[in-house]
Amino acid sequence: MNPVMRPGGGRVKAGKVCHFIQTCYAPDVTSSAIYLSLFITSFLAATILPLSSEAVLAGLLAQGGEPWAILIAVACVGNILGSVTNWFIGRGLSLARTHPRFPVNGKSLERAESWYRHWGCWSLLLSWVPVVGDPLTIAAGFLREPIWVFILLVSIAKIGRYLAIAAITANFI
Question: Model-level pTM?
Fold first, then answer.
């Protein structure tokens, strides 16, 4: 092992320095990395990317190293902000709907608008459902659902889902 100088002089083996750093600083770095990775996974899972934030959250809850309330809150905030991003994407797409290269044809767009108008903003309570939820959040922005209604309903759906995952995980531990 390579010797390392102590602040007051003398030498310490690198292995002892690494152990000191791990015991003093690693818990904070590890917690921050866990929260950041959960936030990013939850955020991206709310977009059209095929990710499972539920599995990540359940794994972290089962591991038991971090407070459950913080893990659930981080997952909720990340997932809700991801859905808000979808809303803004939908809002931007609504501005481009007359462009000749718009990716959705008129008939499909009318069908989606009709479905959303029929079920209304309450359909956003299904925003937690895989495959269905992401297009719903984009459609809400496209159809100019007020952002405060959107955030309220999506928050109820996402928080409910993560609380259910926590309850299921608690029963399996």
Answer: 0.77
